[in-house]
Amino acid sequence: MWERSKVSDLLPGISPESHSFTYTYPPPYVALGRSSRGGFDIAEAVVWPDFSMYVHFPFCRMNCNFCSLHRQTAQNEGMVSSYLQALSQELRLFGGIECVPPLRALYLGGGTPTMLSADELNQLLDRIAAALRLPYGADVEVTIECAPEQGRDVHGWAAFFQTLTSRRQLPVTRASVGVEAWSDAVLSRMGRTAATISATQALVAAVDQAVATYNVDFLVGYPRGPEGPREEGRDIVSAVNDLRAQGMRVPSVSIYQLWAVENIPISRTALHTLPSADDLLQELWTVQSALYDLGYIPGYGTAFVRGAEDLHRWTRHRYESFRHLGFGSGSYSFLPDGLVQRERDVAGYRALLAQRSPHWGEVDRAINLVTRLSAVELEMRRIICGLRSGTPVPPPTATSAAELEELASKLNRLTDLGVLERRSEGLALSAESLLLTNAVSSYLHPGAMPRKPPAAWHAAPVSRRRGAHTSG
Question: In the prediction, which pLDDT does 458 show?
Fold first, then answer.
């Protein structure tokens, strides 16, 4: 483990104003500005050896003020059912193409998919299996995001997951539990009114018994109240210890950083209260050291896992293979040579799919914004996302472009500092640098294309910004 004094020198100039959580490369605001309406060539997909799928459910019962991935609380059942009808129609159209590649991983995200009933989720999974013509017994990792609810106790959650994990096709094999904080006071400030610690414990207890593996998610960097910024890491460690003391496995722990990311309400209203970069590094260091001591090892992205069986197939597939398709409003896809984004327009999505669309291509061209990447951008993405997935990556093969020269210089600095290691397969993150992966991937963005958009972008009209930050 590094000395604390060395951690401070790892990423010079890292700050909430210029760096933040990195989903992909290029940054969403850059890709959106260059994208054009029109779907990707479906011929690409039919020659893929496999692919992963993200299905987006954009509704929640709570309106968390740290979330950038959705903007709608479910107001009535009609809103939800009409969205599910549109989603089912899109899946049918996609399933109508000549040859659908084998599915390796499926992620039901949002939003909060578990606000649906078990019957609704089973119907959705049946439609996905039918659209993709999945054989019985197909080896597919199926993950569902879930959040605590005051109205469900451990027995209610147990019955809910029992129906989803005992399916013959596409049984749920993994869950992602949004814990976020281990303080009722902080959860209340986050807007998570239904997510008390007791409600969270009930959910995790049921998941622990029903699902093969799961992760619990925590947020670092949320503006603190009287507790002070340096209590956050200790709260996360206490949460893991408390859950394990109750006999729960807690096989995987994910730590997500909240810095000044665009389109997040709490960042706009409380930017001055965000913790400093040094405080944030200290909190990440506190959590990382404690989880190492508890026997966790690096997973993918920002996850710690108890064993290799708890690694997240979907996460690696998305960041390493770039064969990832998103369905629903406000999702995105990773293609080998590009990005596909969808505007967060639930009403427009429902209206489009309610029409009698003759083929998949028409819908695909209508709802997708496609960005094709240059050779330099592909090289940048291969390295940034490859490191994030835990995959050793060869260094840049050419440094003629200014962006690649900058990237090569940064990679050399990170190697000299011990953040990266040189192996026979290429450069790889050292084991100790796992919790710095978001910062590393943000730092590697070229100076001309920082992770954070220019200040002028924040002042742009809403119509220009819509859809810039998507989920999945």
Answer: 41
Span 180-202, average pLDDT: 92
SS (H, E, C) the chain: CCCHHHHCCCCCCCCCCCCCCCCCCCCHHHHHHHCEECCCCHHHHHCCCCEEEEEEECEECCCCCCCCCCCEECCCHHHHHHHHHHHHHHHHHHHCCCCCCCEEEEEEEECCHHHCCHHHHHHHHHHHHHHCCCCCCCCCEEEEEECCCCCCCHHHHHHHHHHHHCCCCCCCCEEEEEEECCCHHHHHHHCCCCCCHHHHHHHHHHHHHHCCEEEEEEEECCCCCCCCHHHHHHHHHHHHHHHHHCCCCCCEEEEEECCCCCCCHHHHHCHHHCCCHHHHHHHHHHHHHHHHHCCCEECCCCEEECCHHHCCHHHHHHHHHCCEEEECCCEEEEECCEEEEECCCHHHHHHHHHCCCCCHHHHHHHHEEEEECCHHHHHHHHHHHHHHCCCCECCCCCCCCHHHHHHHHHHHHHHHHCCEEEECCEEEECHHHHHHHHHHHHHHCCCCCCCCCCHHHHCCCHHHHCCCCCEC
Q: What are the structural domain ranges in the chain?
A: 24-319, 375-454
Region 395-404: what's the mean pLDDT?
Answer: 85
CATH topology of domain 24-319: TIM Barrel (3.20.20)
Output the pLDDT for position 442: 80
* pLDDT surpasses 90 at 242: yes
Label residue 173 by pLDDT band (50, 70, 90). Answer: very high
pTM for the model: 0.91
Q: Is residue 262 over pLDDT 90?
A: no
Class of domain 375-454 (CATH, top level)? mainly alpha
Instruction: Check for a shared fold between 24-319 and 375-454.
Output: no
